[in-house]
């Protein structure tokens, strides 16, 4: 396979563990749903509703969690590990090991969400929602990975995403939070024209002390 081709990057992506773990979740939730009877209209409605709000989830997680400011309590500074990990990613956007979903998301967050959903909603809807969510996470992981590789966009939509996320990293960290879609930024007013926004001096550090 030619170095730098899409297939070549896909092969390097698949050498990492988290894409396989997320793909296993997609398969497990899909099998679980299949054992719970035929698909119903409510499954389609739940999947469509999730996909409709997914751009907002992406925006909220990136803007409010990954870019959260550290807070001080009794003279000590606290920062979420997800925020710290994202800061490292901003410090070194070319380090591809830093673009993957952190392990704790799969080790305790996903199981906790799974248990919670199965307790709260009918089992067939929980399985559908979880399969859709895991598939979205896999799409996010692959898109984010590819944007940070040397692969040059060919399709119009991917070129748009590529430019969008690179503006976030290299122009101003206060805008362009979407990765698989810019819909959240358009709706929430964080999708300015690149040329209208000054280059931020903190786009690399996110305003914090360099971590390494
Ligand atoms: Zn990134
Ligand atoms: Zn960011």
Features:
mainly alpha, 2 strands
General description of the model:
The chain is an all-alpha fold and 212 residues long. It has one domain. The protein is built from eight helices and two strands, in the order αααββααααα. It has a two-stranded antiparallel sheet with strand order 1-2. Strand 1 and strand 2 (76-78) form a beta hairpin. The model has no long low-confidence stretch (mean pLDDT 93). Residues 89, 93, 144, 148, 165, 169 line the site of one zinc ion.
The main sheet orders its strands as: 1-2
Shape: globular
Tell me, rounded to a whole number, the average pLDDT.
Answer: 93
Low-confidence stretches: none
Strand elements, count: 2
Distinct compounds present:
zinc ion
User: Which structural class do the helices and strands define?
Assistant: mainly alpha
> H/E element string?
HHHEEHHHHH
User: What proportion strand?
Assistant: under 5%
Q: How many alpha or pi helices?
A: 8
The proportion of residues forming helix, as a percent range, comes to: 55-70%
List the helices and strands and how they pair.
Blueprint: H1 6-13, H2 17-34, H3 41-66, E1 71-73, E2 76-78, H4 81-91, H5 103-120, H6 123-147, H7 156-170, H8 183-188
Antiparallel strand pairs: 1-2
Helix pairs in contact: 2-6, 3-6, 5-6
